[in-house]
Design goal:
It is built from six helices and eight strands, in the order βββααββαβααββα. It is α+β, with helices and mostly antiparallel strands. It has a single domain, classed as 2-Layer Sandwich (TATA-Binding Protein), CATH 3.30.310.210. The strands form two sheets. The protein has a six-stranded antiparallel beta sheet. It has a two-stranded antiparallel ribbon with strand order 1-2. Strand 4 and strand 5 form a beta hairpin. Helix 2 runs antiparallel to helix 3, helix 3 runs antiparallel to helix 6 and helix 5 packs across helix 6.
C-alpha cells in the first residue's frame, strides 16, 4: 500500500478510485468528438479517467487520483450531463429540467456503511446535500458490487459524492492515528 500523504492543513489527500456505470450515450458525451472532452477533463482535473472498452449497453468509467482531482472530475462530468439535458430540452415543450443522474459502482461490503443504522447515514446525505441517493438492493450481474444512484443538481451530486468518499475512506481514516510525523502511514 502506498503511504498516505497528510496535507498541511490536516486534511487527507489519498488516492481513490471511483467507478461509474454509464449508458453508451452518456459515455459518448464524456468522450466527445475525437476524445477531446475526456482529454480536457483529464488535463483540467488531474484525475485518471478510463472508460471500459466494449460494444455493450453500459460501460464502466473509472476515475482515479487524489480526492481533490476526483471531485473536480466528478464536477466536470455532472456539469457536462446538465449541459446535455439543457441542450436536449431546447426542442422540447417541457418546462422543468430533469435532474442529473450518476450511478456509482460500490462494493456491496461498503453499502451498509453508506446506508447507516436504520438508514440514518443515507438520510443525512440526502438532507445535507439535497441530492437523491439510492443504494440498489441487488448486486450488479456477476458481481459483488451494487449500484448507488445519485440524482439532483450538479452541486448537490458533487457534495454527495464527497460524503460518500468520506464514508468509504473511514477504514483508512481510523488507521491515520498511526501516521508518523513525516506523514507516512505506519502499519
Amino acid at each position: 500500500m502506498e503511504p498516505i500523504k497528510v496535507q498541511s492543513e490536516g486534511g487527507l489527500n489519498v488516492t481513490l478510485t471511483i467507478r461509474l456505470l454509464m449508458h453508451g450515450k452518456e459515455v459518448g458525451s464524456i468522450i466527445g468528438k475525437k476524445g477531446e472532452t475526456v482529454k480536457k477533463m483529464r488535463e483540467d482535473s488531474g484525475a485518471r479517467i478510463n472508460i471500459s472498452e466494449g460494444n455493450c449497453p453500459e460501460r464502466i468509467v473509472t476515475i482515479t487520483g487524489p480526492t481533490d482531482a476526483i471531485f473536480k472530475a466528478f464536477a466536470m462530468i455532472a456539469y457536462k450531463f446538465e449541459e446535455d439535458i439543457i441542450n436536449s430540452m431546447s426542442n422540447s415543450p417541457a418546462t422543468s429540467k430533469p435532474p442529473v443522474t450518476l450511478r456509482l459502482v460500490v462494493p456491496a461490503s461498503q453499502c451498509g456503511s453508506l446506508i447507516g443504522k436504520g438508514g440514518s447515514k443515507i438520510k443525512e446525505m440526502r438532507e445535507s446535500t439535497g441530492a437523491q441517493v439510492q443504494v440498489a438492493g441487488d448486486m450488479l450481474p456477476n458481481s459483488t458490487e451494487r449500484a448507488v444512484t445519485i440524482s439532483g443538481a450538479p452541486e448537490a451530486i458533487i457534495q454527495c459524492v464527497k460524503q460518500i468518499c468520506v464514508v468509504m475512506l473511514e477504514p483508512v481514516l481510523h488507521r491515520v492515528s498511526n501516521v508518523s510525523p513525516a506523514g507516512t502511514l505506519v502499519t
